[in-house]
Amino acid sequence: MALGLLGLKVGMTQVYDEAGKIAPVTVLQVGPCPVLQVRNQERDGYDAVQIGFLDKARRKASRAERGHVSAALESRRRQARAKAGVQLPPKADCEPQRHIREFRLDQPGDFQVGALLKAADVFKDVASVDVTGTSKGRGTTGAMKRHNFHGLGASHGVKKHHRSPGSVGSHASNRGSGRPKRGKRMAGRYGAERVTIRNLRVVRIDIENNLILIEGAVPGPNGGLISIRPTNKKK
After folding, report:
1. Fewest CB atoms within 10 A around its CB: which of 17, 178, 184, 229?
2. Tens of pLDDT along 31-62?
3. Residues with Cβ < 8 Å from 226, sequence gap 6 or more?
4. DSSP 8-state assignment for residue 17
5. Is residue 146 a contact partner of residue 190, using CB atoms and an 8 Å limit?
6. DSSP state of 161
């Protein structure tokens, strides 16, 4: 597993390459993300990097959120551990972060707490990425919109039951009163789920504005939080 970054979905547009071929792209504002903690095998049992995204006003942050990033916030526990000779982990010394994520690594990397990770540094030589976001919530929907059912007949003489899911029970399966089978696709809540789109081609990187142009669609609305990392679909 490789290091990734957090960002926001800006929107979709289209761009031309050097050969004049057009590509539909999604614009992502990625980073900069400060490194908050570095996990290792000796202390934590695994290798990972914890990063943050978007500064949060200190007046809106809790004491725990402020203490997570600042070493200047004293506490009795911190004083007791320092007096006992326990080596305290370094702090990023930055503003409290609105979003915090941890990316596991296959092998330890050379990361320093407090360093700023930018899109150009992490995705400089990356050809394809995996993007994870939360899909748009559509509330309670019927079977046609939720599961792509084609519906029932709508010709003359047909009862007005066109968008019905059809038969639900299963008398033929010898289940007593014909209750539905587990996993039956029916109406219900649709969307607002964690979705990962894999193996999207990186078209362009805007170093100055921390923008990445990805060919294809990305889950979630404009302004939604996304996480992006090099794909593990192919080498």
Report:
1. 17
2. 899 999 898 888 888 989 999 999 988 888 88
3. 6, 7, 8, 9, 28, 131, 132, 133, 218, 219, 220
4. -
5. yes
6. -
Mean pLDDT, to the nearest integer, of 73-79? 78
How many whole angstroms separate alpha carbon 90 and alpha carbon 72?
11
Task: Could you please state the CATH topology (level 3) that the domain comprising 5-138+189-230 is classified under.
Answer: Double Stranded RNA Binding Domain (3.30.160)
On whether the pTM is more than 0.70, the answer is: yes
Give CA–CA dist 162/144, Å, rounded.
Answer: 10
List the Cα angle 195/219/214 in 5-degree steps: 115
Question: Rounded CA gap, 86 and 41, in Å?
Answer: 18
Q: What does the domain layout of the chain look like in residue ranges?
A: 5-138+189-230
Number of H helices, E strands in the chain: 5, 12
